[in-house]
Amino acid sequence: MPEEWGVRTRDTGGVFYKPFGGAELLQVFRVSEPGITALEAVRAASEDRGVSPGFEEVRIGAVDNPLGGEAAELVYAYDSEDSAGRRQVAERVFTASDGRLYAVLVAAPEEQWPRHEEILSTAVTHFDPYDSPF
Questions:
Q1: What is the DSSP string of 61-124?
Q2: What is the rounded CA–CA span in Å between residue 45 and residue 65?
Q3: pLDDT tens over the chain, length 134 residues
Q4: Dihedral sign computed on CA atoms, order 42, 58, 117, 25
C-alpha cells in the first residue's frame, strides 16, 4: 500500500484502503461464490457494473498469476461524481496461496492512471491470505 493510504473500513468481508481526502481506493475481498472461476467472477462483475452511468468495459480476460493458479482481470471506466468525471477501475480475481479466490480492485480518476495498475500488481504480488482480515 502507498504509505499515505489508511484502512477505511473492514466491512462486508472486505477491506478498503484510501488516501485521506483522495478519490482513489483499493479494495480487497474474498470471492464467496462456491465453485466460481476467476474468469466467471470478473464476467459477473462486468455485468453488475454495466448499469453504472457511462460504463465502458476496457478489457476482460485471463491474466498471469504471480502466485500460481488462475487469475482474470476486468478493467472498466464509468462516469463518477466522486471523481468529478471518468473513473477507471481494475479488478483482478486470483487464486491465493490458501487455494481460495480473492479480488483486489483499484479505482481512481482516469487522469491518475496507469499508477494504479502498478498499485494493483504490487498488492496482488505481495498478497498473503494468512496475514489478512479474512
A1: EE---TTSS-EEEEEEEEEETTTTEEEEEEEEEEE-TTS-EEEEEEEEEGGGTTHHHHHHHHHH
A2: 19
A3: 556 555 555 566 678 777 766 778 888 899 988 899 999 999 999 999 888 889 999 999 999 888 788 999 999 999 987 767 899 999 999 999 888 999 999 999 988 888 888 888 888 888 888 765 55
A4: negative
Q: Look up residue 116 and give its three cell numbers.
A: 494504479
Beta partners for 120? none
Element (H or E) spanning 16, and its range?
strand 14-19
